[in-house]
Hints:
- It is a single chain.
- This protein is α/β, with parallel strands linked by helices.
- Among the domains are: 182 residues, Leucine-rich repeat, LRR (right-handed beta-alpha superhelix), CATH 3.80.10; 114 residues, Ribonuclease Inhibitor (Leucine-rich repeat, LRR (right-handed beta-alpha superhelix), Alpha-Beta Horseshoe).
- The protein contains 7 helices and 36 strands.
- The structure holds 2-acetamido-2-deoxy-beta-D-glucopyranose (NAG) (7 copies).
- InterPro entries: Leu-rich_rpt, Leu-rich_rpt_typical-subtyp, LRR_dom_sf, SLRP.
Amino acid sequence: MATFQLLFPLLVSCVVASASPPRHLPPCQVVQTDVFCSDLSLRSAPLDLPDGVQMLDLSQNQVQNLTQETLAFHTSFRHLNLNSNKIHFIQPGLFRDMTDLRVLDLSRNHLNVFALSKTSIGPLTAVESLDLSSNGLYTGMSDYFLADSPSLASLSLNSNSITKIAKNTFNGSSLLQKISLHNNVILEIEDGAFDFLRNLTELDLSKNSINCIIDFNLYHLRMLNLSKNSMERFQSASHSHAYKLLYLDLSENKMLYFPYLPRHNVLEYLDVSRNCLQTVDISENPDKRIPVIVTHLKYLDMSYNHLQSIPESFFCFMGSLEVLNVSNNCIGSFSISNEGLLSNVRIINLSYNSLQSLTFGENTLQTLEKLFLQGNDLTTLDPGVFQRLPSIRYLQLQQNSVEICTSDPDQEEPESAGCVSFSSVPNLHFLYLSENNLHTLPANAFANTPLKLLDLSLNPGLVMDQEALSGLELSLVHLLLRENNISSLNTDLSLLKSLKHVDLSTNQLTSIPMWNEESSIESLNLQNNNLVTLESSTMLALERSLKTLYMGSNPLNCCSNLGFLHMVRRSAVVVPDIKTVTCVHEAFLEPVNIEQLEEGMCQVSGTPVYVIIILVLLAVLITLGLLVKFCHSKKRKRNRGFRA
Ligand SMILES: *[C@@H]1O[C@H](CO)[C@@H](O)[C@H](O)[C@H]1NC(C)=O
Ligand SMILES: *[C@@H]1O[C@H](CO)[C@@H](O)[C@H](O)[C@H]1NC(C)=O
Ligand SMILES: *[C@@H]1O[C@H](CO)[C@@H](O)[C@H](O)[C@H]1NC(C)=O
Ligand SMILES: *[C@@H]1O[C@H](CO)[C@@H](O)[C@H](O)[C@H]1NC(C)=O
Ligand SMILES: *[C@@H]1O[C@H](CO)[C@@H](O)[C@H](O)[C@H]1NC(C)=O
Ligand SMILES: *[C@@H]1O[C@H](CO)[C@@H](O)[C@H](O)[C@H]1NC(C)=O
Ligand SMILES: *[C@@H]1O[C@H](CO)[C@@H](O)[C@H](O)[C@H]1NC(C)=O
């Protein structure tokens, strides 16, 4: 009897071995009790699996029938990965005795074929995590897999074709904590389908076709993702029950009104971006204009909607808000004047609206660090608006039409109207002012503001005062002056001791700014200017610190820039646009790429010719001199002769 028991598996092994093509398969990798057999064209697990194997990765193989044989009669698995096979049949009851099996991945198979046979796979005794994604399953088919899954905590049914969640869909898996139904075509959820799942905390219904939720009553849920549906309404069932919801993602829907949230909520994250909000009211009915109470909310995204205004009162019960994104709307005016509002906000994104007015009252927004205002219509601002923001570090104001106030460093408050002052903003490090149609940059424009980055690009015709950057000597690291039509810089950049990155591309510069040995410039962009000659002492001074140099599209003269060419060849400076760095050489009709330039090419037509000419001239002069002397002495001799 004992012999028979030993023989039996061997016999089966032989049968299985002869059934599959006699091909030598590359071996699986075995690491202790884990076996990795991914992508080996296998139809079943290898027969020599070690005893007590706990993890088997059979993903990306050719398994069709999942039976005891295919798993080589092992039942000790804790983790089975069968993703991306061709499984269309599972032996009923296969997992009953796998009392250690916790993780089962059956994604990317053909389990819809199995479901058509209307057979159940039997109990998933201990399985806690089951992945059935991408199996072509449609409504009702999940029943054959879930009917008896008492330990199931996490289930993925992503990327199937389910249209309806029935009342009893999850009846056999009442301990579920997390369900993912992303990318199906769910149109309907029957009343009570999730109600009895007491432990459910995460529900992902993103990318479906749900168009409204009117009785949201999953009090225990922490995460609800409804992104990419056709939601027009979201309404909580009870205004008085306490909800545990922390994350609600309603982005990319068709919401016309702000979601109707329960009064007792602890919501921290709310995304309503890319919807059709025209107002922050919760319904069109004026009687229902109750305040939005989200005292725990930290993140609110309402970008890409059609909001024209946001009344200050909307923020009354948002004391915890840290990030507010209302960009890409049609907001014309934004104002926070009440001291208590948004007292924890760090980031406000108001970019791409039609802001003409922006008002922050005294002592408001004391924690604001980043303010994004690009792409608006700001022209006149309360001149001291930014001085009142003690924590502001990062300010994006590009694509507006602001003018910068002339500031008198001795005066505390700038007085002139119709401009914005950037002096004495105590923590401002990053300032973007490109595309503002700036005409002038007055002296001391940034005095007492510790800017590290200043972007003044795309303000063609900008006239910078000689002292415009004074005050930034020790702080400024990045300076961007791209596309400003500058023909000569009248500001001495060598005074900016911390400057490392300078962009002067697309201007009309005929000479490079002067730098001396003390410069610490690391990257310099001089692309697309009018440079003919590069001042060699400056180039030598730069060479010490320079790492990257952009030089393309300049009418350089080949032979007067030999110093530069040497620098490119022998130093560690990288010239990323070297393919477009050309120079003009009299011997060639077309500009020559500097990589093709050879040392010899300039010695013929350069200095030596000059020297030869001088030598010839000298020789002629000497000869002439000698001739004159000779004639003279002959004459004298003759004269003497006459006398004699
Ligand atoms: C899979 O199992 C079914 C039913 O047991 C059987 O009819 C079929 O021939 C098997 N297919 C393969 C490829 O083993
Ligand atoms: C689902 O479970 C509930 C109670 O847990 C029971 O009343 C109902 O009949 C079950 N439905 C099915 C189809 O098993
Ligand atoms: C499920 O929730 C119940 C209470 O509703 C709790 O006692 C139990 O520990 C939870 N189970 C798990 C696995 O979290
Ligand atoms: C919701 O689902 C979308 C689409 O799958 C995803 O991009 C987004 O990150 C999810 N939201 C949250 C809060 O996890
Ligand atoms: C909204 O702005 C915040 C902060 O600036 C950012 O993290 C988020 O990605 C933005 N939302 C969208 C939809 O881009
Ligand atoms: C501001 O929000 C927009 C979306 O409306 C986003 O694309 C942008 O990245 C955000 N800005 C920052 C700096 O986060
Ligand atoms: C750029 O400057 C030149 C003179 O240096 C001027 O003729 C031209 O109109 C300017 N272009 C722009 C766009 O300001």
